[in-house]
Amino acid sequence: NSLTTIWKLYRNLSEDQQRYEKQLIFEHPAFVKLCQQLLRDSRRMTRGDLAFSLHAVVNLGVPQNTLLVQTLVRVCQEKLNQLDNRCISVLATTLAGLEKDKNVRALQAGLQLLVEQRIPSIRDIFILQNLMKCLGKDIPVFLKKKLEMAVLKEIDHLTFPNALRVFLALDAMYYCSIPILNACSKKIQENVHDVSFRHLVLILEACYSLQYRNVKLFSTVADYVNSTACLWDKRQMMLFLSAFETLGFQPGELMDIFAEKVTEEDPEFLNLKSLLTVLRVYSRLNYIPKDQKDL
């Protein structure tokens, strides 16, 4: 509980604050004692305490090659069959952030086998998408297919936040499931005003990497960006345009708005790198902005 509380407080800090607080945490005598106690009691801990302690220790930045982290990884491997679905999800998240040494690879292999056995019993879409994201693209195709079928069984209960997570999890797993992508796209279109800038760009990038072409989704995103153009700075709009260019989708109104912003408001914004990016986008999409040709 102490470790999880420390991690929850730590993760909400800025990067600068985290660097400062991390030093204070690691130098604090109570933290050293806590880690020593964790090391001594690791084999007697409950499954939940074990999984969450490893997660907190790794995310706080305790080095992977320490006796503490390596011991917790080995104990997780010994108790793997005792973990419930939530603990499996937490463990998958933790392993995704670790380097692939001998112990981690062994635990990952065991985790894949356990996930394969447990998939039919997992009804929580959050756990399913997290496993998809954390197990990643290197898992066997048959396991990707099993995860897909499990998500499809719960697709009618898909909420917008989970739709967004599942969409991006498919990209992390590098698996194009058209039925799931279509269902997620519908939810995203209905709630596009709630999607952050970062996630909008990630969605477009995922469509490209998965070779998923949904013109209605592209149009919805482009229309939303058009209607909220005042909220985006020019660099953000350039990222949108560049993402649309890779998809071969021409958002004409957005391209007009961007050209007007640059030529009338801030021509100096375009340094050489930006200028080349803009010229590439407009050229490949074969678009000349209205009334902006000469400028």
TrEMBL record:
GO cellular component labels: mitochondrial matrix; ribonucleoprotein granule
Superkingdom per UniProt: Eukaryota
InterPro entries per UniProt: FAST_kinase
GO terms classed as biological process: mitochondrial RNA processing; regulation of mitochondrial mRNA stability
GO MF annotation list: RNA binding
Protein name in UniProt: FAKD2 protein
Organism: Jacana jacana
Taxonomic lineage of the native organism: Eukaryota, Metazoa, Chordata, Craniata, Vertebrata
